[in-house]
């Protein structure tokens, strides 16, 4: 992280007298500002109402995205350069961060506050109900299931991802085809949860009768077992079959990071331990784990945050039926199907509260690294 | 000496264990891939592993029993007796299998085991899924039904239309902001950056309801522009943070000499910083692109059910819901949606991994 001191704007020879702001500069910058608003506003309206071929729209949009955004910065900085140095220095940074701050503020920061506000109101956001939405969430049966399942996801999913990731990282480190193995394990991270859902739905597929086309049921029947409808009938174990999908996808992430960390363990320490007669298991728990504990913590929190928000898998696999509901699917259901903005907002806030510790850790970490 | 030998032996074990794990990891995807090329009727009748060479029973000689054999009694065939149920399911006898060919006519087929080497593969599934036209589907019993295709090619282009601008715009905006945060001093810099860090892991659910309300008021719902903006906003904290980490590490001397020459911040940024940041831009760009490409929730909420704008993930999720047993469609559709991520994964692995590592915290 950047601990460097900033560039001194005074590197240019300071102008002797304070220049005054010229009328011309003010006029020019006003024109530039208005022209930007008008031009981009009309492009905005054009795209909003456009009925063009989507491919053409896409091409135009990319052009606008690149050139338009670039031109906004270009014209605005040009306008600022018409001003004397001391004004320029003050305004320029805000032009650079302006678009980012406006978009973030409009579509992320303010909405978060508005959601917090809405969570104190009833379903149609008309009547103030205080904390009763929160009380309802923790007493309602469906919500209780969702919270229980989310906890399952967080504990089982995270634990398994970290454990498998560590195991595979160590195995790969000692194998003779490390790169290939890592690619294979990492590959599922590239695909979408929806596609992964289809893949695993096919693995878990159940049909009555002898011939099973789902891999899992085929294996079970091969060994003389009864085929099962894994994701629906086996409550509450069906949750675990959904969690396996997460493990399949996220272990690769844990593995790649652990793999890098393991390579950082100094060889001479390991060698010394081996000379002292420590076996590999002892080396693993006594040296490696303590050495990479910080990495383990990072990976764990990352996967926890990820599993807390899990949505796509459940939505595609079961739609939240058969007691597989999680908080994010409940949020969707309350919001879109029941139109209960109060409950929906409250669930979103519950998710936010759950990741709050991670946000605080991030900020502390950032300060410690001397970011600012 | 013995130690070295032991190390070598354990390496073989490691290789084998890792091989088994990799095999298990690959198996689900392999099943999908192979199934997507099998005829619709085959997929539903036999497992995908039957596409590999395997032994199966082939019709052989027909044995005629006398017409008045009582089916409730044990039935004698070639000197051995079987029950009716056994013959219905097929029963093994000296390397061949006996099964009713025609139970009423009392004929039994003595099936021989043979190898089936060439699998029946077809590209029909892909044609059906991609085009929106009607097509004929051969059922297992030989009859034909007409089904309407899913028109996934439209969704493919929609996804691309959404993903490219939703990658370019945030990366550009975030780079400008990252430059300012890294190399310029201004009041509010610290506060604003802390807010951006706080937004890194925020669940996007907290923003969805109010943003949707705004979109409805502005008429942005179900439009490309709306979803570009949404993805831009949800991607910005991460991209800004990622680019900040990179740009703030660039050597200071670089800027100083440029400043000496009288270059403005804008010139420095576009002539110096952007070209130098290409690896970082590629990494985070790939991450953002894949995130948008694979996204389901944001599209689900801001696109809704307008078929002309729907992306692939929504189409596939719809298919799972409405045609959950049509595996010939599901498998090929899922594979089409995986093409782009897999291509990026294999071609740009270095950037891909770096972007994913940096971006894994995204909400």
Automatic annotation (TrEMBL), chain B:
Where does it reside? Cell membrane
- Membrane spanning segments where? 12-34, 162-184, 191-212, 224-247, 268-291, 327-348
What biological-process GO terms show up in the record? transmembrane transport
Return the Gene3D superfamilies for the record. MetI-like
**Domain called ABC transmembrane type-1: residue spans:** 156-348
**Where would you say this protein principally sits, based on its record?**
membrane
**Bilayer topology annotation:** Multi-pass membrane protein
Q: Which domain of life is it from?
A: Bacteria
* PROSITE patterns reported for this sequence: ABC_TM1
Q: Name one GO cellular component term.
A: plasma membrane
What does the UniProt keyword field contain? Cell membrane, Membrane, Transmembrane, Transmembrane helix, Transport
Q: Which PANTHER family match?
A: ABC TRANSPORTER PERMEASE PROTEIN MG189-RELATED-RELATED, OSMOPROTECTIVE COMPOUNDS UPTAKE PERMEASE PROTEIN GGTD
Family designation: Belongs to the binding-protein-dependent transport system permease family.
- UniProt-recorded name of the protein: Sugar ABC transporter permease
State the organism's lineage: Bacteria, Bacillati, Bacillota, Bacilli, Bacillales
